[in-house]
Amino acid sequence: MKYLDEFSDPELAAAMLDEIARTVTRPWAIMEVCGGQTHTIIRNGIDQLLPDGVELIHGPGCPVCVTPLETIDRALAIAARPDVIFCSFGDMVRVPGSSTDLLRIKSAGGDVRVVYSPLDAVRLAQANPDREVVFFGIGFETTAPANAMTVTMAKRLGLTNFSLLVSHVLVPPAIRAIMDSPSCRVQGFLAAGHVCTVMGMGEYVPLAAEYRVPIVVTGFEPLDVLDGIRRTLAQLEDGRAELENAYPRAVQPEGNPAAQAVVHEVFTTCDRAWRGIGTIPQSGWRLSDAYADFDAELRFEVTDIHTEESALCHSGEVLQGLITPHECPAFGKECTPRSPLGAPMVSSEGACAAYFQFRRLEVATA
């Protein structure tokens, strides 16, 4: 398949679905750990085309959605300062904090800017030496190399007015936490292909072996996702639990060594809170001691900001795959894309946004 259209070919999709139907003999539950895959599934109705009993569980695969509320409130406190230019990608500007969001901060006079690369924030720091420039660095392993390079560049340029508010999270510890949960129903995983493009596949081998669970590295187009599901179901039916690469056009077993080197230079692992889930040990990155001068949390003394989640928002249960979005009592009522209670309703990769945008508008009863 050389061209994009081939990854949506209906005849190939039908053939793959027929193979899946011939393979499956019992119910299975598979979790995708990527918001992009979730949107592909919902947008194309893939879950509705699978045999009865095959369930797709939407996991905590949206980095915006799992950014904890207290981190967002820390970002808002920094962004409201008159001496700060606060930079973020566009997917964070409407994510709600406890009482406001970045867009409202901007409307009230805060200097909040949407950038297309963290390097844009470095250029702003160079052009505005009398202002503090902060970049909101969130995401899984995929976005970490660019953010790490930004910090090394700022250090090399001698910029003292640039800092990074870090909220990076890691996929393998999340898989471990899901499997250790007493409520876990997951029997196989579709791993996020872009994460493995950076970090390689090595961390998933012990997870598959320890938990006896198939893990298939999967891409993002409709046929990519169907192929990942097909391979996972084949393993489950055969009684196998292996790591398998269904995305070889992008993922090499060793990943990207150059990207890994800059990440390990700039960041060090730490315990990290996940919104709606809680703290997962060693599931995040923070700036290492050598780059602590660029840590916005320390520079602006916001580490003591702690907040509570909305009692109406069930995003934590959605992110753990315990409920689907429309099973939340607030879905489509108190919580809509125009007035979101939680990040999964406003993020471009959020499961709640996918259900609202594409078809799943049945509002749960309280």
In short:
With 366 residues, the chain is α/β, with parallel strands linked by helices. The protein is built from 17 helices and 11 strands. Strands 4-3-5-6-11-10 form a 6-stranded mixed beta sheet, sandwiched between helices. Strands 2-1-7-8-9 form a 5-stranded parallel beta sheet.
How are the SSEs ordered, and which strands pair?
Layout: H1 10-23, E1 28-32, H2 35-44, H3 46-49, E2 54-58, H4 63-66, H5 69-79, E3 84-88, H6 102-107, E4 111-114, H7 118-127, E5 132-139, H8 144-157, E6 162-169, H9 171-180, E7 188-192, H10 193-199, H11 204-211, E8 215-218, H12 222-238, E9 243-245, H13 257-266, E10 267-274, E11 278-287, H14 296-299, H15 315-319, H16 343-346, H17 351-358
Parallel strand pairs: 1-2, 1-7, 3-4, 3-5, 5-6, 7-8, 8-9
Antiparallel strand pairs: 6-11, 10-11
Give a verbal description of the structure.
The chain has 17 helices and 11 strands. The chain has 366 residues and is of the alpha/beta class. It has a domain at 68-169 and 255-299: 3-Layer(aba) Sandwich (Rossmann fold), CATH 3.40.50.11740. Helix 8 links the parallel strand 5 and strand 6 (162-169). It is globular.
Structure classification = alpha/beta
- Total strands: the figure is 11
Uncertain regions spanning at least 5 consecutive residues: none
Helix content: 25-40%
Radius of gyration: 21 Å
The CATH class name of the domain at 68-169 and 255-299 reads Alpha Beta
Name the shape in a single word. Answer: globular
